[in-house]
Design goal:
Distance between the termini: 23 Å
Radius of gyration: 24 Å
Strand content: over 45%
Largest sheet: 8 strands, antiparallel
Structural class: mainly beta
Number of strands: 10
Shape: elongated
Number of helices: 0
């Protein structure tokens, strides 16, 4: 039994109260991805049920519960640009993600609209990512963010460190 439904709504425009200013959001299709989840649980010991006079112990027994979920997400949309009166913000993606999905965020570029109506680069944020090792599956992690000026000189950078002694659970 397969179900199809809309699980996400995307903001496309914000209009000021007086109707004179707009912020537009643009998205690009990032393909699709699939997830498979398998869950198993087992209860051993007394089984309790709710009776007329409260909880009643039915007896010693084992309960098993297996479940298998498969999910395919089609037409994944990723924010690619935010446009406003005096500039725009661009989101660039890098293909080849290993942990689900087709891409990851690579850069954010901030541009200012000039008198000629074109856009001048003001600042760029670059994202360096790696993967946690989570048993058999990789999990994306943010290693650092580098802030660059309009001439691509490094202004600032932030490194992130994680306690990786405990493995993350499966997705």
């Amino acid at each position: 039994d397969s179900q199809t439904y809309t699980g996400t709504y995307y903001l496309t425009q914000i209009v000021s109260a007086d109707g004179t200013d707009y912020i537009n959001f643009t998205y690009q299709i990032d393909g699709y991805y699939s997830e498979t989840n398998t869950n198993y649980s087992e209860t051993v010991g007394d089984r309790c049920v709710l009776g007329e006079n409260g909880v009643v112990v039915v007896g010693d027994q084992r309960d098993f519960n297996n479940s298998f979920n498969f999910r395919t997400v089609n037409n994944v949309l990723r924010l690619s640009e935010i446009n406003f009166a005096n500039g725009k913000v661009e989101f660039t993606r890098i293909a080849g993600r290993l942990d689900g999905g087709n891409s990851r965020l690579g850069e954010i570029r901030i541009r200012k609209k000039n008198a000629a109506g074109t856009y001048d680069l003001q600042k760029t944020y670059k994202f360096d990512m790696g993967y946690f090792s989570s048993g058999a599956a990789a999990r994306l992690k943010l290693n650092s963010i580098v802030e660059l000026d309009a001439s691509t000189n490094v202004i600032n950078s932030h490194d992130f460190f994680y306690n990786e002694s405990t493995l993350l659970p499966a997705r």
